[in-house]
Design a protein that fits this description.
Rossmann fold; alpha/beta; 29% helix; five-stranded parallel sheet; 216 residues
Length: 216
């Protein structure tokens, strides 16, 4: 699903990622760990095409990473950032529905039945749907963001600290939901032991290999 060969990512004169290689097969649940500044968040942003590597190659779903292929590659991905920032007074339901109105998802209808099932599995009350997103806690927003990713049902999920701000009980629920099925390939940046324990592969990014560019 994802093959990274000897990539280097530089900001200005600083190398954030240096000579990194790995391969993640379809259905694999992979976790990246490491101290702050080791390049974890930068790696995810590189995989979604926000940054392009200065050296090396990336292949996603057998498509080489390039400006020409980027739109098609992104259609295979869902990215959950460290923080979900509300864009106004949108409700949770509006936040969940909005991506389905975009042309990239025009062939998908909103999976109402799946939403209710997933709300229950994520321990989110139906009343959350009418709440403004900005009134939710960071942990609640993370669960809503994860819910959106599962509703979009793209083959590759890239998740940056999906259990940050979530209590241990809900963290275990998220781990079981993400890693308990084989349909999705999941790449997670985390320090959460419940996710690490359930993963297929753990890759630790070392500070001595990556300069601190202000990202995790």
């Amino acid at each position: 699903m994802v093959k990274v060969e000897s990539i280097t990512v530089t900001f200005g004169m600083r190398k954030i990622i240096t000579d990194l290689s790995f391969e993640i097969l379809n259905g694999t649940k992979a976790v990246f760990t490491g101290e702050s500044g080791s390049g974890k968040s930068t790696l995810l942003k590189t995989l979604i095409g926000r940054y392009l590597p200065d050296e090396g190659t990336i292949t996603v779903a057998d498509k080489p990473f390039s400006i020409e292929n980027l739109s098609n590659i992104r259609r295979q991905m869902y990215y959950l950032p460290q923080e979900i920032v509300p864009q106004g007074d949108e409700t949770v339901r509006e936040y969940l529905h909005y991506p389905f109105s975009l042309s990239v998802n025009r062939k998908k209808s909103f999976p109402e039945d799946s939403m209710h099932q997933l709300l229950d599995r994520l321990r989110l009350d139906e009343a959350f749907l009418t709440q403004p997103l900005l009134r939710l806690s960071g942990g609640e927003r993370k669960r809503v963001g994860l819910l959106l990713g599962l509703l979009l049902d793209r083959p590759l999920m890239l998740l940056d600290e999906p259990t940050a701000g979530v209590d241990s009980s809900n963290s275990n629920t998220i781990a079981e939901l993400l890693f308990g099925e084989q349909r999705h390939t999941v790449i997670v940046v985390t320090h959460d032991e419940s996710l690490i324990a359930k993963s297929d592969s753990v890759i630790e990014l070392k500070n001595e290999r990556y300069s601190d560019g202000g990202e995790g």
